[in-house]
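For the sake of transparency, this paper describes our internal protein records without simplification. Because each token names a local backbone shape, the row as a whole describes the fold. One such record is reproduced below, unchanged from the form in which we store it:
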Amino acid sequence: METGASAPRVAVAGAYTGGRERARAGLTEVRRSWRVILQATVAASLAYAAGEAIGHETPFFAPIAAIATVAISLAQRLRRATELLLGNAIGILMADLLVIRIGTGAWQVGLVVAIALTTALLAGGGPILIMQASSSAILIATIVPPTPDQPWNTGRFADALIGGGIGLAVSALLMPVDPARHVRSATDPLLAALHDGYQKVGLALRAGDQAGADNVLAYLRGTAPVLAGFHAGLDATRESVRLAPWYWGQRTLLASYALAGVHLDNAIRNLRVLARQATMAIDRAEPVPADIPDALAILAEAVEVLGPVLAAEESPDVVRALLLDAVRRTVGAAGGDPIRGSGPGPASGPSGQGAAGLFNAPMIVAVRLSVSDLLQATGLSGTEAHALIRAVGDSSG
């Protein structure tokens, strides 16, 4: 038990340790966000200078709009930036037109906001446009209302448009995100989930490990955020390619990732089904041929090589050869030797061949569907992938 004298020292030490950890985390975040910091700094300076260049004495709306445009999420930046621009402009315009006539106060602010929001909705705006329109209207109606000498300050309206446009241009032209690197970093977690899933399902089957099979099934059921992250990363790279002229040459690579993503998505869904079948096979002590976990190990190896193939750094031939080898392992697996100790019960069927388990055929189908998905992820059409799989079956038969 801590004494009264030592308790304050412990508290101080804990506060110091916690503060040091927060400082370290803050520095990490600063290093991660240096690009946005640089873009916001340059955009704010340029926007203010542009406002002054066209004769505005204090163009404070310009740097505000510029920073807001830079700071918004990279995904759907063009749409978000457009909404922000329009929202600022609508809010300022409505407030400038109304406040000089109705004055300021609680009900006036409410009316200005209602009209700004109605206008934003009529313009088909999303959440950003609606929020920006209302906040800009409140700002004009309360802090910087128009005066009788200047009933409509067109400079503020222009500053909002100028600042947003400069922010968007700086984001696109000054140190933009490299689409190829960004989409690869978004794809790697999805490939890792597939690799780990194939590997762990195979190990659980080989060892008859019920707990391991349950764990990998739970893991695969929790991969929805991985898929969401991949698709969000893909959307972000589309924006980068669209906005930055020197990345236009990466459109073909991005299209390849987009096409592969569809099939990787299907592959992880098939893997969930396979993991469920493996779990039931182990739970019921069904005999499983060794060829099935062997095929899963080969699939894991193929996925490990798939990343460089998608990045156009390696030929797809190695991946395709591995995938077809996985198919070859499943040919005749239903009549093969069972895994020794594949479950808590007997390891052989009525004929002495343990491979006649109830779940073997569905698992073999799931393996071949995964092979088809991964072959198509390398750029083959569905027809080409299915033809290769059939050819392996025919030659092995």
Notes: The two ends are 73 Å apart (CA to CA). Confidence is low (pLDDT under 50) at residues 340-355.
